[in-house]
Amino acid sequence: MASSTAIKLKSGKDLPAHVPASLVREVSQFLRPNTSPDPYASTKEVFETFPRIFFSPEFAPGQYDGTWVVTHYEDIRDVYQTDALYSTAESAGFQTLIGETFRMIPLAIDPPEHGKYRVLLNPWFSPKAITALEPKILATINVLIDEFWSKGGCDVAYDFGRIYPVRVFMDLMGFPPEQLEEFLAWEYAILHGNRDVERMKWGIGSAVAYLRGFIDEMRRSPAENLTSHIVHGEVEGRPLTDDEIIGTVAFLWLGGLDTVAASTSLMFRRLALDPDLQQRLRENPDLIADAVEEFLRLHPLVNSVRLVKQDHEIHGVQIKRGDHIMCYNATGNFDPSEFENPREFDLDRANNRHFTLAGGPHRCLGSHLARRELRLALSEFLRRIPAFRIKPGADLTTHPGLMAVARLPVVWDAGKALSC
Ligand code: HEM
C-alpha cells in the first residue's frame, strides 16, 4: 500500500497528513456519463466494496480540494443533522472563483443565523404558497403540451422538462421570460460544465452581473415578485445589506433554476423505459405522489458537501477541522438498511425518507415547489399523451454534475392524444 506522502490530491497538493493512504478512493469515476436505465447503477460497487468512510482526492472548483465521503444512510443523516460539527460555509462557493466575497444565502449560513433568512423566504415556498401557484404551473405545463400533443412525438427533456419549471421559477422571481436561454447557458457552464473552471467563471460572472442589474431595477421599481421581496425585505427588523441581497438572489438562481428540469428529464427517461409503470400510473393517478417520491429517491441529483468545524472521529477515522465531508446521496438513497430492494422502483414503498432534497436545517427550501411541479408535469403528461416510448436510435446518456439527460426524444400514437 502506498504511503500517504506518495499520494497527491488531484490539485497537486499533498494528501493531508492525518488521511491514511488505505482510505483513499477516487469517487468520480463511478458517476460518469452512462446509458444504464439506472444512472446510479455503478454506485453499488462504492457501497459494497469501499470503506464505509473514505477520502476522495478529487478537486471541485469552488467546493473542495479532497473530501471525506460518507456512504451509509445513517452516517449521511448524522452529517446533515449535526450542524455543531459540520458547516455549509463553503457550500456552492462558485462566486469565489471570480473573487466575490458575498455568501450564498441561505445555504452557506450555519444555524442559528441561518434561521432568520429562512423566515424571510419560507412564506414564498410553503405548501399554501405553492397551492396558490398551481394554476400558473398547470397553465405553463399545458402550453408546452399544446405544442406537441398532436405531433406524435417530442423531446420530453429538451422541449418540456427543460422549460416548464424554469418558466415557473423565473415568473416567481420576476425575471423577464426572454432571459431563459441565456440563464440556462450560464447555469450549464457552472453545474453541467464538467468542472471547466474558465466556463464556470464565465457562467457565474455573467449571472452575478445580470442579477445585480436586476436587483437595482427592483430597488428603483418595486414589484410583486420574490426578488423585490428580498430587495425590500428585512431580517431581524433591519434591511438586508447589498451582499445579503445578491447572496440570496444568486443562490436561489443557482438552486432553483434547473433542478426540477433535471429531475423531470430522469423521471421521463425511466418512464419511457418502463411501459408497465406508465400504464399503472395512467390508470391510477392517485399513485402519482408516491411515484414522484420514488423517482426522486432513485435520482439524487447532487451530493452535498460540508466543512468540518471540529476534530472528531467517525467509525474510528480521524476527521480534522477544515476537512470537507461529502454526503454521498448516490449511495445513501440505495442503502439496503433503510430501503428494502433499494435499486428497484417500488410504488408501495413506505417511509421513503431519501436525501435527494437533503436533510437537516438546509433541507431544500424549494422542496414543495419541486414536488408539486413534478406531480403536475407527470399527471398532465400522462392524462394527455398516450403510451410513449423512446424514439429508436435516441441517445439516452445521462450526465452527472447535476445529473440529467439532455435530450429525450419520445414517440406515441398521435391519434390517441388529447387536445386539452
Ligand atoms: C428536484 C428539484 C430539487 C432538488 C433535487 C434540490 C436539491 C437540493 C439539495 C440537495 C439541497 C441541499 C444542498 C446542501 O445540503 O448542500 C437544496 C437546498 C436548497 N434548495 Fe433545492 N432542490 C430542488 C429544487 C429547488 C427549487 C425549485 C428551489 C427554489 C425555487 C430550491 C431552492 C433551494 C434552496 C434555497 C436551498 C438552500 C436551503 C437552505 O440552505 O436552507 N431547490 N436543494
Main attributes of the structure:
three-stranded antiparallel beta sheet; globular; five-stranded mixed beta sheet; alpha+beta; binds protoporphyrin IX containing FE; 15 helices; 420 residues; Cytochrome p450; single chain
Description of the molecule:
- The chain has 420 residues and is an alpha+beta fold.
- It has one domain (21-416): Cytochrome P450 (Cytochrome p450), CATH 1.10.630.
- Helices cover 43% and strands 11% of the residues.
- It has helices at 43-49, 73-81, 113-125, 127-148, 156-161, 164-173, 180-191, 197-220, 226-231, 242-256, 259-272, 275-283, 288-298, 329-332, 367-384; strands at residues 53-60, 64-70, 86-87, 153-155, 234-235, 238-239, 305-308, 312-314, 317-319, 324-327, 389-390, 398-399, 404-405, 409-411.
- It has a 5-stranded mixed β-sheet. A 3-stranded antiparallel β-sheet has the order 4-14-11.
- Strand 5 and strand 6 (238-239) form a beta hairpin.
- The termini are far apart.
- The site of protoporphyrin IX containing FE has 24 residues, from helix 10, helix 11 and helix 15.
Shape: globular
Order of helices and strands: HEEHEHHEHHHHHEEHHHHEEEEHHEEEE
Strand order of the largest sheet: 1-2-10-7-3
- In DSSP terms (H or I, runs of 4 or more residues), the helix count works out at 15
Distance between the termini: 64 Å
* Percent range for β-strand residues: 5-15%
Helical amount: 40-55%
List the ligand species. protoporphyrin IX containing FE
Rg over alpha carbons: 22 Å
The CATH homologous superfamily is termed Cytochrome P450
Uncertain runs with pLDDT below 50, 5 residues or more?
none
CATH class membership: Mainly Alpha
CATH topology group: Cytochrome p450
Give the integer mean of the pLDDT values: 95
- The CATH architecture term is Orthogonal Bundle
Number of domains: 1
Number of strand elements: 14
Instruction: Report the structural category.
Output: alpha+beta
Largest sheet: 5 strands, mixed
